[in-house]
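Fresh eyes needed here. Have a critical look at this protein's tokenised backbone.
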Amino acid sequence: MQQRPQPAEYTSSSARSIGDYLISSRSFVEYQAMFALTSTDVAGRVLDCPGGGSSSTATLCEQGGDAVAADPVYSTPVAELIGRLDGEVRRGSAWATAHAHRYIWDFYGDPAGHARMRENSARLFGEDLLRRPDRYVAAALPDLPFPDDAFDLVLSSHLLFTYADRLDTDFHLAALRELIRVSPGRVRVYPLIDQSGQPVSGLLEQLIEQLTYDGVASSLVDVDYEFQRGARTMLELRSTGVVR
């Protein structure tokens, strides 16, 4: 048996940062594009982790699906969390507008269209959180309170790789292993660049090499969505059960 490679550290080449972790309110339409989702993909049980203020869980369940979101921010009292979302939408929009050259606005039309979509998504999320708080589980990677094989599909958006300036290689590896534990069939992660638009190819290569030893097959899949320039690819993971 070959010796398992040891992870190295990744350091972002950009000192620019959005600041505190953003509670993003992405819509299900954005999720469909980011993760190249089809109706077959979401036919089973779906986990959104971290879910933030996204309305994807609400929309999937409204369409007859079975979805759950997990995020440590869900430990916040409901009224307080809903109250924070307007400010978070404004903060995210201000960041994107201030760095407009890093983005392609076609999907939204313009910055105002981007802000409107996020505002509407935040509203839908808040309404669903009030109605069905059981769909929103307070939990943080890399330790999720779900049994093995609990989900058919996991979607993980804008945490891993996005915050590579503060989440090290060990965290990324532990988080991906945990997502694979709860959904050995399919895990999809997007985007594969950091928040400043810098590539994370070195980190990605290290993680894929590590996961290969765990019996996990990794695929880089092009998607028909690009908001951050260069973010045209998602990572898809599947457990093969063959450990090296």
